[in-house]
Amino acid sequence: MTSRRMTIAFDELLRQARETLRPRRLSAFAEAGGVAAALVSADGRIFTGVCVDTTSSMGFCAEHAAAAALITAGESQVLKMVAVNWDGRILPPCGRCREFISQLHDQNRSTEVLVAEGKVVKLADLLPCDWKQVARSGVADGA
User: Fold this and answer.
1) Which residue of the set 12, 63, 99, 112 is catalytic?
2) Residue closest to 113 by CA, chosen among 45, 4, 38
3) Catalytic residue list contains 63
């Protein structure tokens, strides 16, 4: 599947994320679909998801929803990702999403993230002081 993953461009991810957007009220206490995300897995499959916002802050981000679909399908490595807000503009992942994706697979620090029109960065660049690097080196806290 290596050839397939090389053919998936950010234009396609952006298109699918924008098509997934569908802002709507679920109840008096919850809304969904104001942010959508699309991820490309190591097998070259695209997974999408939307955010769920609740008044009691129990919701989750679109990247989490897309990652849950990826994990449900048996994968954990993310090669590329993008998120868009309610009007289709590119939105960099929040800190929680950056950290979440980075923990799913050891290679996810190399995930390419579209953070603005024409600007792609590695997830590692969005997590410059990664605590996991210290934990892996065996250095104890406070030592």
Assistant:
1) 63
2) 38
3) yes
Instruction: Find out whether 39 and 81 touch, Cβ atoms under 8 Å.
Output: yes
* CA dist., res. 24 & res. 10, Å (int): 26
Secondary structure (H, E, C), the chain? CHHHHHHCCHHHHHHHHHHHCCCEEEECCEEEEEEEEEEEECCCCEEEEEEEEECCCCCECHHHHHHHHHHHCCCCCEEEEEEEECCCCECCCCHHHHHHHHHHCHHHHHCEEEEECCEEEEHHHHCCCCHHHHHHHCCCCCC
CB 75 within 8 A of CB 96: no
Task: Find out whether 17 and 87 touch, Cβ atoms under 8 Å.
Answer: no
What are the b/e assignments for 33-67, b being 16+ CB within 10 Å? bbbbbbbbbbeebbbbbbbbbeeeeeebbbbbbbb
Residues in the chain, pLDDT under 50: 1-5, 141-143
pLDDT at residue 6 in the model: 52
CATH class entry, domain 2-137: alpha beta
Kindly report the backbone phi and psi dihedral angles of residue 128, in degrees, each rounded to the nearest multiple of 5, phi listed first.
Answer: -65, -30
